[in-house]
Hints:
The structure is a homotetramer.
Chain A: E1 2-5, H1 11-23, E2 27-32, E3 37-42, H2 50-55, E4 59-63, E5 83-85, E6 95-97, E7 103-107, H3 114-127, E8 131-133, H4 151-163, E9 168-171, H5 178-184, E10 187-190, H6 198-205, E11 211-214, H7 221-233, E12 239-243, H8 261-268, E13 273-275, H9 277-281, H10 284-297, E14 301-305, H11 323-339
Parallel strand pairs in A: 7-8, 7-14, 8-9, 9-10, 10-11, 11-12, 12-13, 13-14
Antiparallel strand pairs in A: 1-3, 1-4, 2-3, 5-6
Amino acid sequence: MIVVMEQGAGPDRVQAIEAVVVEWGLRTHVSQGDERTIVGLIGDESNVNVSALEMMAGVDRVMPVLKAYKRASLEFRTERTVVKIPPARHGDRGLTIGGTGVVVMAGPCAVENREMILSLSAFLKGAGAHLLRGGAFKPRTSPYAFQGLGVEGLRYLAEERSVVGLPIITEVMDTRDVEMVAEFADILQVGARNMQNFNLLKVVGRCNRPVMLKRGLANTLEELLMSAEYVINAGNEDVILCERGIRTFETLTRNTLDLSAVPVLKRESHLPVVVDPSHGTGHWDLVAPMARAAVAAGADGLMLEVHPDPAQAISDGPQSLTPKRFKALMGELELVARAVGRNLH
Amino acid sequence: MIVVMEQGAGPDRVQAIEAVVVEWGLRTHVSQGDERTIVGLIGDESNVNVSALEMMAGVDRVMPVLKAYKRASLEFRTERTVVKIPPARHGDRGLTIGGTGVVVMAGPCAVENREMILSLSAFLKGAGAHLLRGGAFKPRTSPYAFQGLGVEGLRYLAEERSVVGLPIITEVMDTRDVEMVAEFADILQVGARNMQNFNLLKVVGRCNRPVMLKRGLANTLEELLMSAEYVINAGNEDVILCERGIRTFETLTRNTLDLSAVPVLKRESHLPVVVDPSHGTGHWDLVAPMARAAVAAGADGLMLEVHPDPAQAISDGPQSLTPKRFKALMGELELVARAVGRNLH
Amino acid sequence: MIVVMEQGAGPDRVQAIEAVVVEWGLRTHVSQGDERTIVGLIGDESNVNVSALEMMAGVDRVMPVLKAYKRASLEFRTERTVVKIPPARHGDRGLTIGGTGVVVMAGPCAVENREMILSLSAFLKGAGAHLLRGGAFKPRTSPYAFQGLGVEGLRYLAEERSVVGLPIITEVMDTRDVEMVAEFADILQVGARNMQNFNLLKVVGRCNRPVMLKRGLANTLEELLMSAEYVINAGNEDVILCERGIRTFETLTRNTLDLSAVPVLKRESHLPVVVDPSHGTGHWDLVAPMARAAVAAGADGLMLEVHPDPAQAISDGPQSLTPKRFKALMGELELVARAVGRNLH
Amino acid sequence: MIVVMEQGAGPDRVQAIEAVVVEWGLRTHVSQGDERTIVGLIGDESNVNVSALEMMAGVDRVMPVLKAYKRASLEFRTERTVVKIPPARHGDRGLTIGGTGVVVMAGPCAVENREMILSLSAFLKGAGAHLLRGGAFKPRTSPYAFQGLGVEGLRYLAEERSVVGLPIITEVMDTRDVEMVAEFADILQVGARNMQNFNLLKVVGRCNRPVMLKRGLANTLEELLMSAEYVINAGNEDVILCERGIRTFETLTRNTLDLSAVPVLKRESHLPVVVDPSHGTGHWDLVAPMARAAVAAGADGLMLEVHPDPAQAISDGPQSLTPKRFKALMGELELVARAVGRNLH
């Protein structure tokens, strides 16, 4: 950490800082410039009260040098995390996320009914999908919109897994529901609106299930990593990061899918990175090109909305692929994956 | 709701839409332009599946005409909501938010210890503050940062109320904590990060306490009103809206305080509007000018961070006022309030 | 165009609107909903004064139905524009942008000196680049930063073309310079900061040279197409669009490269689309993954910064590729291009 | 300037940096932390090639300590700039911008015709306005929109000045027009879209007229000050800064008026600060509250759009005040100005 003094700040100001810093158990290193004095802090920065420093007389700014996240960083752990999903049924093969394979999670926005889940899942499995996505609890902007089937939806997902065999990823929104959802889900999804619901992060962090953490609409990648740090710090190291579009001024897309998040997160962290081009664009005709681009950029997986009849979907129809388009896309993705030295398993 | 057809969409496309709309119990009104056909929907729009419409063949766009929020809107209820806070102690006077008076909520970011709360509160009351703010549960970006005193903090606040007499506003972050926090707080605060924690909104909506809802960092004013709608729809009409800065590209302020939110929200809704210039700017020297500006723009109240010794604050020191500066600001605010026909009680 | 009336607006309000609209030479179509009346306008909308409509008594909103751009739209011209660049030298082959080939424009941020241009260009040509990029006039945030070599730089570029044979793309910043720059350049580049310098757009629109128009930092895709419309409307149909990153709250990248711009622009317009991942990310290590992603998303070309010694570059060193890395990237791009049914010529 | 080394960067890396820095004529100061080494640069930073430093082996980041603008900063010149506008006619009183008085610039978005200018100006002067605003050259998103009357419009403004006596502020968009516009205008306005049209800044910087520089839609306050630096550096010290709203995700306002720009710019710079709530909000009913708020926040002036008949305005009608509303607002502003120790002259 570096403390930049104001122009003209005298040696008494600097000494006052040194006194405080020593109290916190660190050392200082003073550098006298032509216009400014700079005080470097040496030692364990977790003891530093940054706000206190910023408020001290003669201080212009305090600049961090080290990163705020540790256990999520590639500096801390240089071996990449590979999340293992056990087989859904006896005799099936398990799954890994973060290896050379590119994983595809597909399914409807919301679990709408039993038949749809069972028949769609069978189709998706045949087309090469690896996980079934589907929300039983839905965060909706309007209190008048469909809020999900709840436990009933979870039961349909459980039936799907035992009958069809695709493992499940589904969202949990409430600290009170984590334990129950974890009984049904192979991966717990924390949605964009809950990325900084820190209590929820702590609870899923004490859970024995992989967690996929979606980037908030207005959150920086550093904040995403800090939220991952909450989960890891609570004891759960199986964290998957997901880019799903950020909020900008552009209006022709629902969100702005920030694909540069993929190489940035791979550079900063050892955690696997998944991209959701359905929410990221909001229009089904943009999903295929952005899914291909995500794989070309190095994503470890994709989350795709597929609906047997998008025009009848209860939510997010416009961004859902038809089963036919999904199947065609899987073929395209395989080609792009190979072009960058990977595959779809 | 208006359905804009694609160029060249034939009468069969339009008839298909009419058929669906009639099934939902509405009527249509078709308008044939030179380049486009437009289908207006007449009737109860809550039955319409917008996504389904958007996905139908020949449809270019579906445009809403009515607002998504109802009970929070000034059209629905033309009389402005005045939230009543009962007296903290027997013999004290109660408080109203949303009337001609401008209400000042002041206090530290976090409840740090008992002595600080009691002595600061006495000072604030003497300087004219109406409510004490102070967080017992703190949402922090880093898991390594101070997370608040929890129940212990709530007890200090309760003691303050019975001894000093300032009513309390404090944040609740978790559905599991609402009942308990409501025992201590006069106003429940839902923080910016939880503005779209819909389960939390439902639970505080079933609570017998006024709720102050802070605008999320990247949320539109329409979304803020939709979140208010969640609370009202669950049964709680005492909702206060709070502008506290949005996330933009500007870096010299912590957030961009969007003061135009005040007149926009007053035009759209009957709910009172409070402004938090401390979080909205992130720097104590910007708090006074922006607090004055908020009152001049028509705010019903202010939320201000005050700390006896900002340099020693555990969190948010740089944006906290000293007691001395707070007192000076109260004098300035009274002058501005009078200039716009209001007062600080 | 649709005029949405306020709730309770009476028939006199609607008649007043009809009277004005008829004066402008259009017809109206009135649709009476349960809560609102809607007036549709039929006829040539270029005669409509939208502001006037919005200000009329009883009007809530005016909503456009048609797109504001015409000649840049795919509706207006369904055949995709293919921009032809003539051979740089007698005997060389010409170049097309917007066909099945993916075009690579490479070179330094700024023309720094003659030797660098000649030797780098020979290398780039050998590695498969199609055009040389290099700025002679540089828009710099600081008046104290290097502003480019000016005409001297243009002369080096001209020499390169006659000696090495790569056609030239270079920026023009000033209406006074267009004629001169057009003598040297094969493609005129209008930079992001000048995307809405409408006088410059008009002047390059009267010029007999293809124009590459870069999206402004905070401009919507619709505004980009409106700026293209300025150029086309002034007589120049050879317009190339370029996505180069937009300004958001994210700080780990210099800009947020909005790759969804590629499929959106291809859906809305017949003009070719190029992506600049160097400016779009600001870091050389992000350039390769985002260049691959751009090709996978369907871009017609790439603009890449390459410098013989990035550490000595006068500007934009950190986002420049070394020649060696550029060559490796060209191989990767060829594989991705083939995976999506294209090639690098 | 501070160079933060990567973790594990050895002494040879540091020595390489020292060697380069010494070559540039500066000294270094090395600080050895527990995890990182930090190299401080001491001396004239204008000789430093930041990009080169960032690219050197072992370097993680380069962090600026000094501000990039000098002559626009309050550190450089501690006395606040007061711009003097000479009397429009013999016998009139001159005007100052940046003193205790709050200056009001009012008028139509565009100069539409002679009569409107003369009669409106007489009204505005009577109501207390200090300058007449009105565009003869209009930057419009669409090539099909009204582009202004050009020189004819300037002549009407000149006639107004000699007949009515309000000094003129009008926009210049093109380097070729600066000399001509300067003959007619008392203040040259550089619009938001041209804030980083650096050639235009240089040309108005060599002009003998005060310049009002509007903040770009997506420009930081630091960039605004850098653009002011261009004008001052070219020789013109009479620069006025203008906040007029930035682009964000919010849709209920045309732009987000960033009033915190006022106290930030007053803290960073000695230049006067004006606020334009008409463009900043886009809706006339938001103009009055935001104008009052701007004065309460410390603005030195306001720019307000007034039109005799907003419903007939060629551009920006919805954000224009009627003369009646303008007059009422002037009364309100006088009260707020006095409440913060200022006046409207």
